[in-house]
Amino acid sequence: MGKYSQPQQPHRPISAEVTSDVFETAALKPAVWNEIWTLTAAFFDTERAYAEAKLKEHQLIALFRTQNDGTLIGMASMDVYPVLFQGRRLAIIYTVYVLLHEEYRGHNLIQRLGLRMFLKTRFQFPFRSIYWFFDTYSYKGYLLLPRNFRTFWPHPDRKMPERERALRDHLAQRTYGSEWRPEKGIVLHSARKRMKPDTARLNLNVPLTPEMKFFDHANPDHAEGDMLVCLCPLTISNWISVGIRAVQRVWRRRKRK
């Protein structure tokens, strides 16, 4: 008898091979915290007790897993809360500790989670303007903005409007306290948590884009763990931009095959 071979399965994009679920942080079981620690230790030199205590300060945790075996390949901590600032009724989506293994970047996983959280927040606060507020020690985190959105800050070519600057400073002061440096727009790194050597440093072996150079200038000590604070209004025009860029990425990947 001849050897039987199964027909080749059509290629599935990585985004279809990854699940994402959002949990209340307080509801996570010890086994899940073990997985979170393994992921965290791949990016940071830190103590487990310190890392978990910081994560438990936040309302929600999103977990990205491979669909075939459930391996944890990424995570993000999040808070959603209302703000009344200078007469403006706003809702804030705050993300922190966003970790994702390199091979899963560029497949719209963070963007899909962002849209999901936006819709949830819109349902919760139907009449408020919604802002995405986050910090990043990595140029890869910052590149989510110029590679997806039209309007965001800090921006390589546009000065931050005073209204948004005041909002950023207000949110950062209440979030980071004495570690916040408003004149630089950064948060000082903690001595109790250091990045692994290759986690955040710019790769000087590849050409640096203008956006990467801007990040390096705005946050020169990012490799030591200083974090650039970012603000992005989640407007209709910005979501249209996200959708267009996502389709373009899928199209480019298909053309390369």
Task: Provide a brief overview of the structure.
The protein has seven helices and ten strands.
**What profile does the largest beta sheet have?**
8 strands, mixed
Tally of DSSP β-strands: 10
The CATH topology is: Aminopeptidase
CATH class: Alpha Beta
* Distance from first to last alpha carbon: 35 Å
Q: What gross morphology would you assign?
A: globular
Instruction: Report the mean per-residue pLDDT as an integer.
Output: 89
Task: Describe, in plain words, how this protein is organized in 3D.
The chain has one domain: Gcn5-related N-acetyltransferase (GNAT) (Aminopeptidase, 3-Layer(aba) Sandwich), CATH 3.40.630. The chain has helices at 30-43, 48-55, 109-124, 139-142, 162-176, 210-218, 236-256; strands at residues 18-24, 44-46, 60-66, 72-85, 88-100, 129-136, 180-181, 186-187, 193-195, 227-233. Mean pLDDT is 89; it is low at 1-12. The chain contains 7 helices and 10 strands. The strands form 2 sheets. Strands 1-3-4-5-6-10-8-7 form an 8-stranded mixed sheet, sandwiched between helices. The protein is 34% helix and 26% strand. With 257 residues, the chain is α+β, with helices and mostly antiparallel strands.
Question: What is the secondary structure topology, with strand pairs?
Answer:
Blueprint: E1 18-24, H1 30-43, E2 44-46, H2 48-55, E3 60-66, E4 72-85, E5 88-100, H3 109-124, E6 129-136, H4 139-142, H5 162-176, E7 180-181, E8 186-187, E9 193-195, H6 210-218, E10 227-233, H7 236-256
Parallel strand pairs: 5-6
Antiparallel strand pairs: 1-3, 2-9, 3-4, 4-5, 6-10, 7-8, 8-10
